[in-house]
Amino acid sequence: MWVQLLITALLVALLPLSLVWVSDDADKYRKLIGVTLFLTLDLIIFGAFTRLTDSGLGCPDWPGCYGQANPWQSLSAIQSAQALMPHGPVTVQKAWIEMTHRYLAMCVGVLIVAQMIISWWRRSKLKHSPWLATGLFFFVCLQGAFGAWTVTLKLQPVIVTIHLLLGMGLLALLTWAWVREGSNTLTQYAKQNLTGIATFALVLLFLQIALGGWVSTNYAALACHDYPLCNGELIPELDFSHAFSLWRQLGQTTSGEFLPFSALVAIQWVHRSFAWLVVFVILYLAYLVKKIGVASNLAKALFILIFLQLLSGASTVFFSWPLLIAVIHNAGAALLVLLLCMLNYRVRHAATP
């Protein structure tokens, strides 16, 4: 099985590697980082699709599917599990969704290994040291470990949420590496230092993504059936103690009882309330950036994306969490991470006149 999975990962990675190799881009190393960044963004979006379609346990073992490298080889085992529980987590469709997610993750892993090898092999010719590429390798290994625990610990909310955050962290590091390789001389100037607020905005965004992941992994998306009120109240009954106890099984309290509905309401209410602080800080940062002209296009993109993210978040409530809008909402969060990382790099490297 392991040999088959390795061959599958190499075959899937062969296409993006070939595209980099035959491209006319003079800087193929940066092209490789860009392709890896794009596929990591795709991986995060497809991971959201996997979670939202309840396909995370479509193959209840790891790294294969019922001990095989693909669902074709384990078809009889999958069909037997589906016959026992027709509405359970294991179906042929969910197995393919889960394994496709794993194949894409393995492809990203291969591309990051390639980056690390190239960065050390050509370290005298590249603009920067190979340590960031090496750090990315260890980071993706950690991400893979949490991907395995997500399955083996049966979608334990804290593990799934950390898996999401690590995915966003990998996206952030790849964005930083890609922007860094493309920077030459400093041609932009800043009248004031925006490093502090840019960092603050990125930290707040990651906290909000953690809260959003906590909503999704606890299936609390529809705990409030209206917006901006929550079940007709500004502050409904909230059970914070059970809502934010981290080490517990899905749908249960730490003592093994069913999670009360007021805890689900608290999870949803905190996520939507904290969102307003995140929106205010990012919009204020975008305003400052637009005002001083360090990265005006990034500021415009942030304005548009924040509006769309608010719209998609509210729409998930109004339309009772449709799959497409929920995936778009997750994609918007990933794009915000990408834009804020680019902006953080720009404001840190803007010269003072």
Structure description:
It is built from eleven helices and no strands. It is mainly alpha-helical and 353 residues long. The chain folds into two domains: 1-184, no CATH class; 187-353, no CATH class. Helix 1 packs across helix 4, helix 2 runs antiparallel to helix 4 and helix 2 (28-52) runs antiparallel to helix 6. The protein is flat, with a radius of gyration of 22 Å. It starts with a helix and ends in a 5-residue tail after the last helix. The mean pLDDT is 92.
Give a brief outline of the structure.
By secondary structure, this protein is mainly alpha-helical. 69% of the residues lie in helices and 0% in strands. The longest helix has 32 residues, at 261-292.
- Major sheet: none
Total count of domains: 2
Shape: flat
Instruction: Indicate the radius of gyration in whole angstroms.
Output: 22 Å
**Helix fraction bin:** 55-70%
Structure annotation, total helices: 11
Order of helices and strands: HHHHHHHHHHH
Average pLDDT, all residues: 92
Residue stretches low in confidence (pLDDT < 50, at least 5 long) are none
Strand content: under 5%
Topology, number of strands: 0
Structural class: mainly alpha
Quote the distance from N terminus to C terminus: 60 Å
Secondary-structure blueprint:
Blueprint: H1 2-22, H2 28-52, H3 75-84, H4 92-121, H5 131-152, H6 157-182, H7 195-217, H8 240-243, H9 261-292, H10 296-318, H11 323-348
Helix pairs in contact: 1-2, 1-4, 2-4, 2-6, 2-11, 4-5, 5-6, 6-7, 6-11, 7-9, 7-11, 9-10, 10-11
